[in-house]
Amino acid sequence: MDSLFLGIEKIITPHGIDLALFKNYLSADITKKIGEKFIDKIVFEHDFVPQFNRNVSTRTILINIPHLYLELEFLEPGHAEKIFISNSNCTQAIGVLKGEGKLSKFAAPSTQNNCVTLVTTEILEPGNAKILSNEYYFISNNSDKPLFLLYLADRQSLSKGSTVSAYRIDTGKFSHLISGSLSSSRLETMISVMGEMKYASCSDVVKKLSAEHPDYFIRWESIRTYLKVNPSQAIPFLSDILKTEKHPHVVNAARKSLDLIKRSFNDG
Known about the structure:
Layout: E1 12-13, E2 16-17, H1 19-23, H2 28-44, E3 59-65, E4 68-75, E5 83-85, E6 91-98, E7 101-107, E8 117-124, E9 129-133, E10 136-141, E11 147-154, E12 163-168, E13 174-179, H3 182-196, H4 203-212, H5 216-229, H6 234-244, H7 248-267
Antiparallel strand pairs: 1-2, 3-4, 4-11, 5-12, 6-9, 6-11, 7-8, 7-10, 12-13
């Protein structure tokens, strides 16, 4: 797949993303080649791409290099998202490979109620592309056929914030914070899955992450997973966490968890 995107790093210039060059990767020839390698197999063999799981993400990574990352997104007809994520942490280009997308632009959230409001919508057809720069956009499938998109992110424009905001599409209201880092987002999902599986072999890894990872939400998910696979170690583990953890959300959650566990032991 790398040979298909040979030279793609040239899209990132000192002035940002070269949209005209990005559009070259939306050509019928490239779409056909991506289709042969990915699209047909995603549609007909859903397990072909390991990280492509509709319950986790509608995207899969094609290129991941220091200057940029490129993702393929697949939106089924009738698929209705309930939230959208602010694009405030980096500059991206979005392009349509196949299908028809509706791009909705929202105004920045009000300081009074932290809500976003719809400003404009436009239809994107195959070959169309758009720069999304520190703004609030949401794209949906506008037809009865699958929609395939390319997302290119300029790593040079990434902000240092570890989280971005998610908003409800129907009301525009703030919903929750999520990871602003692709790698952290994937890691958080993996840690959560290992916890649900009660995968005991991950204990050393998540214990280390719970103490050392720079993102607080990764530390907290690691704590949760460690507790799921090592319930007998809950009290000493949480006590150690509270000796060093500084983030108020993690401290508050860990303290409440420790109090509940101690109370259940006393009641028992």
